[in-house]
Amino acid sequence: MEDLRFCRFMMEDRTPRFGLIRGQVVHQVSSDPFGPMEETGLRVPLEEVRLLPPVTPPYVYCVGRNYVEHAEELGNRVPEEPLIFMKPGTCVVGPQDPVRIPPWVGRVDYEGELAVVIRRRCRNVSEEEALDFVLGYTGFNDVTARDLQRSDGQWTRAKGFDTFGPLGPCLRLVRDWRELGDLVTRLNGRQVQLGQFRRMAFPVERIIAHVSRFATLMPGDVIATGTPAGVGPLSPGDRVEVEIGGVGCLSNPCEADL
């Protein structure tokens, strides 16, 4: 099967477009990945376009404490079932967009994650059929104001700041997460996280089935599957990268939100 990587992108006219990435070239297509995606004939070097978030969800479903080592590093246990929280769609930014850090929030952490994009309406599905509803996978950085997370006692404010949800760089159009390589997070070029998806406490199919029991998932909805051990603080001037084998590298600078 062809390695299909879908992207949203802009050129100098700043009009959002759809494309497929082949090597270092973007091939424009006629629709989003829910349509026929017929090629228009326009081909542009990848380095000459600005990549956007591959989808624009109204909110992002997230899974907390889905790796044993990460739960332990924050003094928590892995829950008995997936621990779900949500981030607003206004937090989502694309590759190379800055993560803006307010000076008053205290510690702010990176959390590299695998994100799942839903292909079609999904409600009360079983684990066995859950992957049939997957459109593909992309990278996500669940940026978190850690001090606020601890002091608030719930996570909405700490997780929900504008720019606290980098997503991308593209969407790998495969059904099964086992076709992907590992997740690596780098801070200023230094590896700080290594995530092997087989070590998730709850695999993708369990997560989708669990969420679909209480919420109807719609095309384009995003589920972030949790972060491995190695989270740490961000500061203005840092650059954080979340790279997933078969997807690509999501890279974002950090700056002060003045």
From TrEMBL:
PANTHER family: ACYLPYRUVASE, ACYLPYRUVASE FAHD1, MITOCHONDRIAL. One of its GO terms (biological process) is carboxylic acid metabolic process. Signal peptide: none annotated. Residues 60-253 form the Fumarylacetoacetase-like C-terminal domain. Keywords: Isomerase, Metal-binding. SUPFAM superfamilies: FAH (SSF56529). GO terms for molecular function: 5-carboxymethyl-2-hydroxymuconate delta-isomerase activity; acetylpyruvate hydrolase activity; metal ion binding. This is 5-carboxymethyl-2-hydroxymuconateDelta-isomerase. The keyword Cell cycle does not apply. Residues 5-54 form the Rv2993c-like N-terminal domain. Its EC number is 5.3.3.10. The lineage of its organism: Bacteria, Thermotogati, Synergistota, Synergistia, Synergistales. It holds the Pfam family Rv2993c-like_N.
